[in-house]
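Below is a typical protein record.
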Amino acid sequence: MKRDFIHITDFTQTEILETFEIVREVKQKFRNRDDYKPFKDHTLAMIFEKPSTRTRLSFESGFYRLGGQAIYLGPDDIQIGKREPAKDIARMASRYNDMIMARLFDHQQIIELAEYSTVPVVNGLTDYNHPCQVMADTFTILEKRGHFENLKLVYVGDGNNMVVSWLNFAKRFPMHFVCACPKGYEPDQKTVDEAIKVGISTIEISHNPLTAVKNADIIYADVWASMGQKAEAEKREIDFKPFQVNQNLMDATGKDTYFMHCLPAERGRETTDEVVEADYSIVFDEAENRLHAQNAIMLKLMEYKNIYY
C-alpha cells in the first residue's frame, strides 16, 4: 500500500486536485496556528546531497508544525551512492523513520530509494525533475487565477528539471506550455515526446523569447546555471543573455501576466530586480506554498495509515 511521490505523474489528475484541497486546509490551519498534529510521534529522514535553503526550511518547518520531527542528513553525513548504496540507505532509514525525503543529483538514486524503502519517499529534487516545486507553483496559479482553463505558461531559460516537471504536469492538465530556450539547451526530448503523445496539452519549444511570450498568462524563470553547472557559467551568460526576463519581455505578452521563479533568483541575470519586485511577481507566494504543498503531499501519501482521514 506504500506510495511515493517521485514524479508529479505518480498522482492522477483527481489525486492532484484532492491534494490541492488538502493544501488549502493545512495552509489555513498553519496560518491560524491550529493545534493540528497528524504527524505526532513520526519522523522524516531528510537526505540532502544538494544543499538548499527553501527545501530544508519548508520540509523541516512543515513536518514540525504537523507534530513530527524532521532529521537532516547533509552531504557529509550520508554520501549516498559513494559511502553506501541508495538501496541500503533506503532499507535502513525505513526501519527508523516514517517517511524519507531526498534532494539528490542522480535521478536513478531516488528511484532506487523508493524501490527498496518500505515507507513513502518524496522527491525533494533531482537533476531530472522537481515535482514538489510544480505542485506549489500550480497551487499558486490556482489561488491567483481560480482555474487552469486556457492557461499559457512560458518558461524562459534552460530546459532543465523544472521544464521536465512542467511537461509532466501537462500530461495531467490541459495547458499551453512553451519552453523558450537557446539552441542546444532544449529539455529532455523523451519527456517532450511523452507529453505531446498524451495529447491534452499544446507543447512548444521556441528559440525566440519575444514571440514565445505573446498572450502568456505566466512567465516562469530559473537560474541559467544550476548546481553542478557552474563551470559552464561564463558560456551560459553569453548564450542566455537574450533570454533575460525584464520589463520589455513582460510587456511583450500584450496582457496582464504573472511572473514566477522557483528561487533563488540571480537578479541581473535570468531576471531583473524590477521584475522580481513588481506587483505582478508572485515568487514569494509560490515560495510560501512550497511548505503547504509538501505538507499536503506527505499527508496524501500517508492516507494508507489513516493519518489524515
